[in-house]
Structure of Luciferase-like monooxygenase:
Amino acid sequence: MKKFEISVLDLAPVKQNKTIHDTFNDSLDLARAVEKLDYKRFWLAEHHNMASIASSATSVLIGFIANGTTKIRVGSGGIMLPNHSSLVIAEQFGTLESLFPNRIDLGVGRAPGTDGITAKALGRNPMNINQHFPQQIQELQRYFSVENSESLVRAIPGEGCDIPIYILGSSTDSAWLAAEMGLPYAFAGHFAPQMMETAFEIYHQNYQPSKEFPQPYTIACVNGIAAETDEEAKKLSTTLYQAFVNLIRNDRKPYAPPVDDMDEIWNPMEKAHVMQMLHYSFTGGEETIKNQMSQFQKRFQVNELMITSHIYEHEARLKSYGIIRKATDALNAGL
């Protein structure tokens, strides 16, 4: 088992009886807290048409978080590239990198981050996404290159900026692409656990070294809910369970506070579905979290764990990331 970094994936969760302004302030407060705890990076994810998630204007929110912190890397986990022009994303992230040098990451995915009707409103063409997505990544690389100064179309800001690109995935398709392009690979294990092991195997076995990344680099995103006791953490996790039940029911309302008994909310089929989707969730007190992380790392040997934490009370969420930091340090110290 090898040592690993830890980072944060934040969806800018909107909670019942809270405003979106509150959400953004909580995200900034969380970023400042995990920066003090030496988390490696703080990523925000692009989603649309969801009353529970406020990170739709991802680039804008990245700027807000980066401006309120000093050293932690801030980026996208990710930008859903087929929703955008490659040039616009190059300009946006070139601007961010120019404002906050050596701190900006660009994680890109091909999923819509929303439902079909909203995807259409975003201007996506589902007929050419699989072909166009790799081309868009190459376009980004070209726009960021110094050599593009001779091109008729230039990204200003963006040209000459050192902005690492990460490929995100929730299936095996992006694993092949990340390996072929010699780019780091982040897998969405927090909601799509089934293919993670196969995807990482494909990525490692087929990795083509690049100048920027001579070695493969893997990030696994997982759910993390830590508290003083296992029992408290289990209750806190009911906010996450309710959120996924709402997704199943196509009811995208804000996050709800924890409950004592989930069986009053979900039926057996919904429970089975939710638990399958949330298979890779670290839940418990510090010792339990450490044991769960150890078992996970022995199996996957990732370079980095990215923790997303759907906890209703902000202070409990901050505390959870502190406990996860302690568990990580204890585990890495023994390696």
